[in-house]
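Subject: Methylamine utilization protein

B.,
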Amino acid sequence: MLMFANFFSRVCYVALLLGSMNVLSADFSFVVRDQFGEPLKDAVIEFKDQQLNHQDNLSVAVMDQIDKHFTPKVLVIQNGQLVDFPNSDNIRHHVYSFSTVKQFDIKLYSGRPEKPEKFESPGIVVLGCNIHDSMVGYIYVADSSEVLKTSVDGKVQLNVSTFPVSFTVWQPNQQSDIDQKKTITFADSSQVADIVITTIEPKPRNTFGEMFKGTND
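Prediction pasted inline below.
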């Protein structure tokens, strides 16, 4: 009888402990908007305390160049991943980055460069073209196993088993510094799941002018 009482006490304790963890069985959805209430595309959500298990077999990501645009505009990769930069235009491009996270320079080329570039530090990499200065792209190098990017509706859905949950939010048109990430914490699933990022209209970049473009256009 005493043995059964001890077993029953242990079961009650485990049940009480699990109940205190605020387990959530349903998916948790939220939306990222700008200051005017419009949904934000290309907002990157990276969940904290989800450290990436570094792998040697990560696939090679692709940042293409189509119609004088980096495609996709925002590429999300993992720390340590390789990125290929094919040029799908019928003109040459010269891809570079001066970002502290990754500085590189792929001189004037068509087709595919000789080798992909490896990104070994987390953060934001801003891309440019030394021939077409209006071309701007971004590579978000994540250091977490959980990272998502919003589509045109600004929505993100994930399965959360415990609260509180913390993550960072970044978007290329944000008013704050390009390297800054906004930290958000949801204490429980009852919180309003709307995130507001103040944005600014990006200014066209054409600092070189037409005189340096030659006949590559």
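Confidence is low (pLDDT under 50) at residues 1-25, 206-214.

T.
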